[in-house]
Amino acid sequence: MRAITTHTGRAVPLRRSDVDTDQIIPSDWLKRVERTGFGAGLFSEWRADPGFVLAQPRYDGASVLVAGENFGTGSSREHAVWALQDYGFAAVVSPRFGDIFRNNALKGGLVPVQLTADEVSRLWGLVEADPSLEVTVDLAARELRAGDLVAGFPLDDFTRWRLMEGLDDIGLTLRHEAEISAYEADRPSYLPSTTVRG
Amino acid sequence: MARTLAEKVWDAHVVRRAEGEPDLLYIDLHLVHEVTSPQAFDGLRLAGRPLRRPDLTLATEDHNVPTDSLVIEDPTSRTQVETLRANCAEFGVRLHSMGDAQQGIVHVIGPQLGVTQPGMTIVCGDSHTSTHGAFGALAFGIGTSEVEHVLATQTLPAVRPRTMAVTVEGALQPGVTAKDLVLALIAQVGTGGGQGHVVEYRGEAVRGLSMEGRMTVCNMSIEWGAKAGMIAPDETTYAYLAGRDHAPAGADWDAAVAAWDALRTDADATYDKEVFLDASAVTPFVTWGTNPGQGVALGDTVPDPAALPAGAERDAAERALQYMDLTPGTPMREIAVDTVFLGSCTNGRMEDLRAAAEVVRGRRVAHGVRAMVVPGSMLVKLQAEREGLDAVFRDAGFDWRNAGCSMCLGMNPDILQPGERCASTSNRNFEGRQGRGGRTHLVSPQVAAATALTGRLAAPADLQEA
Ligand code: SF4
Question: Which residues form a coiled coil (chain B) (predicted)?
Fold first, then answer.
């Protein structure tokens, strides 16, 4: 994973709540076995509508998506994160994220920026008034800055460190192999195996 | 210290705890299907890592499989299933393929085989993994990076979630199901109501549910944002498990039951959040909108967004009504459907099929309605055939299919056409979920059956009056 400390880019206001992962990347796209190329499928149903915000040229090249609450609810498909990243997004702002989406985003280095509904509303206003406004997501300060808006967002120390160092979670866990083996040695014998019948 | 059920299961699986870091949790069972695993197996190969515990891993083909033949016509779907087969062969994972008697939807086959047991940690690259919580397991959905993590390490780093209790007192009225209960709950708490929490369902009405009803409730936990849903194991759980293929036997059974008996929330334990619901007030419940929280009683009318406070909720309701092509004030019972789908990991089990067959027996599907039954697993299908339910459905004009996810998400050929309206026993009414432009009303199996017969949203009681 690429290390991230700050990201600065323009933002696109998505004034919708409950944007579920079926909207972010429809299930037709889930048949693919690759990890790349999902950008074309991002919001593909909505993008067919020229009035949809992502279809508007003034937001071309935006890399911060600002959405309403409950963003990324629904299915566990990490394809939603891959699609957002492949399209060019580095961060998503919302007052509340689906849990699995948030986890997936943090694994892949797409920063979920959780602000209050009020702050999101102000950000929508700022970006709509000036689509060229630069928005900065600063992991070190755990802060989003845009114009006169400065808003903190939650991110635990460990995850922040991992993102800023660009570390692979599996590699980190395998450092504790001895502890995993010790735990395994103590598991009760009645627990099921999928290969041996009980 | 007094602990809740979720905390007990969590604590028993902590491999490593360090200040300022997520806990490293051991995973007892990893369920795998074709959609969310290919990139994870690729990751293992790229890094040259072995699969740590094939014996705690189980795979099935469900999302892409056709339900009317054993041949996958769509080349991309076929490649995905073939990729799973190759990966399982290479890494030594047990796989239930199309045509195998134990194949089925991942959340149906785990409990059925008896590999889902109380007190376990269970993960799958699928959000409805919460289903397995019905046994008192801590079960949750993960993304593909996490799938790779579990394949490689049999663990997951995870931050201890908050706990929540949903206490459902009173008894469900006759004809009211677990599905109605959970739809009513989601309408009350909203789609984000459980976010960040592991929720424990408890109270008289929950204890009174069968295992299959409990699975329906836990299945939909994710639809209101909960990380997982759990129900404490009891005699109902043990009776369901006893004798299953992978359930413990002999001395192991006794040791297991002793451990399971301890998996109850301590009397003086506290939850971070509590919700109460009166089961006796719940009636058949259906959705009108495009998220599972947008539901009303079947006896009600399509709500008027103007009655909602201005803001996100009203906007969402307006957009949903437009998508669903519904007018505020229309009685739900007047809404005509084109399609009825009976199946999915929410309501594709034996009991669901039996209940629906009772409604259908001796009657005919309404003219112009396409109705299909897709059993949750091949074993469910075979059992239903032994009981003669296939004939009941077929005689009424239903399609009788093989097991799979099917129209729950429309990755196989079973999809809605744009503008088509469906009464579905599945769990998601998102825009386009069952096919581009399709409109979904979530319902119980009994309501699905009655709706197929009348062509409009209906409950079995409506048929008797007619
Ligand atoms: S039946 Fe539907 S919800 Fe269940 S696993 Fe399949 S696609 Fe997911």
Answer: none
Q: Which positions ≥6 away from B141 have C-beta within 8 Å?
A: A75, A76, A100, B123, B124, B125, B126, B127, B128, B129, B130, B222
pLDDT at site A168 = 85
Whether ligand 1 lies within 6 angstroms of the CB of B405 is answered as yes
Q: Which pLDDT does position A198 carry in this prediction?
A: 59
Same topology, domains B5-275 and B285-462? Answer is yes
A68 to B291: CB separation less than 8 angstroms, yes or no: no
Write out pLDDT tens, residues B153-175.
999 999 999 999 999 999 999 99
Q: Does A58 touch chain B (CB under 8 A)?
A: no
Judge if the beta carbon of residue B214 lies within 6 A of ligand 1.
Answer: no
Decide if pLDDT at B452 tops 80. Answer: yes
Q: Identify all chain A residues contacting B263, using CB atoms and an 8 Å cutoff.
A: none
Pick from A18, A180, A190: CB nearest B256:
A190
For residue A112, pLDDT over 60 is answered with: yes
Q: What is the per-residue pLDDT across A66-111, written as a single tens digit (0 to 9) for each? A: 999 999 999 999 999 999 999 999 999 999 999 999 999 999 899 9
CB within 8 Å: B36 and A78 = yes
* Residue from the list A68, A170, A189 with its beta carbon closest to the beta carbon of B252: A189
| Cβ–Cβ under 8 Å, residues B349 and B456 | no
Model confidence at B63: pLDDT above 60? yes
Any A CB within 8 A of B26 CB: yes
Closest alpha carbon to B132 in B158, B164, B110, B103: B110
CB B421 near ligand 1, within 6 Å: no
The answer to whether the CB atoms of A31 and B80 lie below 8 A apart is yes
With a CB cutoff of 8 Å and minimum separation 6, the contacts of B82 are none
Q: Is the CB of B450 under 6 A from ligand 1?
A: no
Nearest CA owner, ligand 1 atom 2: B408
Nearest residue in A to B408, CA atom: A27
Extents of the domains making up chain A: 6-186
- How far apart (Å, rounded) are the C-alpha atoms in residues B105 and B116? 14
CATH number among 3.30.499.10, 3.40.50.880, 3.10.20.30, 3.40.50.2000, domain B285-462 = 3.30.499.10
Ligand 1 centroid distance, CA of B191 (Å): 18
Q: Tokens 């799938």 — which residue?
A: B147
Cα–Cα nearest to B188, from B320, B292, B327, B309: B292
Q: Report CB contact under 8 Å: B55, A196.
A: yes
How confident is residue B125, by pLDDT bands cut at 50, 70 and 90? very high
Q: Is the pLDDT of residue A2 over 90?
A: no
* Amino acid, single-letter form, for residue B273: K
The CATH code belonging to domain B5-275 is 3.30.499.10
Question: Among A34, A173, A188, whose Cβ lies nearest the Cβ of B155?
Answer: A173
Q: Is B88 annotated as a binding residue?
A: no
Beta bridge partners of A7: A137
The domain A6-186 belongs to what CATH superfamily? Aconitase, domain 4 (3.20.19.10)
- Among A15, A96, A196, the residue with its CB nearest the CB of B192 is A96
Q: Where are the domains of chain B?
A: 5-275, 285-462
Pocket mutation for ligand 1, best pick of B31, B67, B103, B126 (most atoms within 8 Å of C-beta): B126
